[in-house]
Amino acid sequence: MIIKILFASILYVVTHATFSQQSVYEAVTKQVKQRDSIVQLRLKDDIQKVLEDGGSYRLYRKEYFRYLIKYSLLIREKLFECYQDECNTPQTQAHYNRKILGLLDLPDYMKEGLLNYRYTEPEVRAAVGDQAAQRDFFERYNKFISTDIKTADEIKQFLSEKIDLTLLAYIRSEESLKIFLSGLQTNDVYTSESDNETIRVSKFVVLLNSYGLYIGGSALLDEDYYKKFLYVDKEQDFDMLHKEYFKQLEAYFKDQHKINIKINAPYMILGREFSIIEH
């Protein structure tokens, strides 16, 4: 009888938690769709302004990265008219034109023009297929993953000086996504000191946050959903429900990118609330 009661109690807790989790997922999904709709409306408005009077700097916003390719046919000719610095005007800045072109679906002659121009930025070269430029970014990213970073200050310095995580989203090739997602398997942890308290943060959280911001696509990747798994007071508090979230992520990445990964982080954040490093 005691075993039956205990089993029933466990089943109730798990079922109730699953139901609650599903409710939160549905609410966050609705919130994400609303937010994405606002971003896309703003993007359409900015595209119209660019077509009318230039100023492509308006389009180089990281929240636009994932959507710009849909507008390739509409804007690429206008931007390619001025991709060299010699045609700069107060309204037209060629380096922004190049960076936006790198996010679009381009015909070969435009790719060749960007690759042959000596001042084209490394990330644009990588985005249009320069394998040497791609390898450089991949090597720097793998260096970030393999380096044993001890503190929040060290991780900020590394991301500031050596690799911008958003550039792998910018390159957006199958290989860049594969390499980025493979980094999610890290079990490294760094520390941050706050009010005489040591907070331990999984490097995985930094990567997940970057993916959610610049690639996104699911409520699973939104902090409003995963915040309930984000903090634990003790490592052993990272329990079955937390680990189930990792399994959901693994299944999502397999479905979206046909990539199998195993998330090995011991927890997300050990300690009280902490601002995740965004980069």
What brief labels describe this structure?
single chain, 279 residues, mainly alpha, four-stranded mixed β-sheet, 12 helices, disordered N terminus
Structural commentary:
It is a single chain. By secondary structure, this protein is mainly alpha-helical. It folds into 2 domains: 38-129; 133-270, no CATH class. It contains 12 helices and 4 strands, in the order αααααααααββααβαβ. The protein has helices at residues 2-53, 72-80, 94-101, 108-116, 122-127, 131-146, 152-161, 166-171, 174-182, 203-214, 223-226, 240-257, and strands at 189-194, 197-202, 231-232, 269-270. The chain has a 4-stranded mixed sheet with strand order 1-2-4-3. The chain is globular. The relative contact order is 0.10. Residues 1-19 have low confidence and may be disordered.
Could you estimate the helical fraction of the residues in percent? 55-70%
Coarse shape: globular
Give me the strand/helix succession: HHHHHHHHHEEHHEHE
State the total count of DSSP E strands.
4
As a percent range, the share of strand residues is 5-15%
Question: What are the SSEs and their pairings?
Answer:
Layout: H1 2-53, H2 72-80, H3 94-101, H4 108-116, H5 122-127, H6 131-146, H7 152-161, H8 166-171, H9 174-182, E1 189-194, E2 197-202, H10 203-214, H11 223-226, E3 231-232, H12 240-257, E4 269-270
Parallel strand pairs: 3-4
Antiparallel strand pairs: 1-2, 2-4
Helix pairs in contact: 2-3
Offer a quick outline of the entry:
By secondary structure, this protein is mainly alpha-helical. Helices cover 57% and strands 6% of the residues. The protein contains twelve helices and four strands.
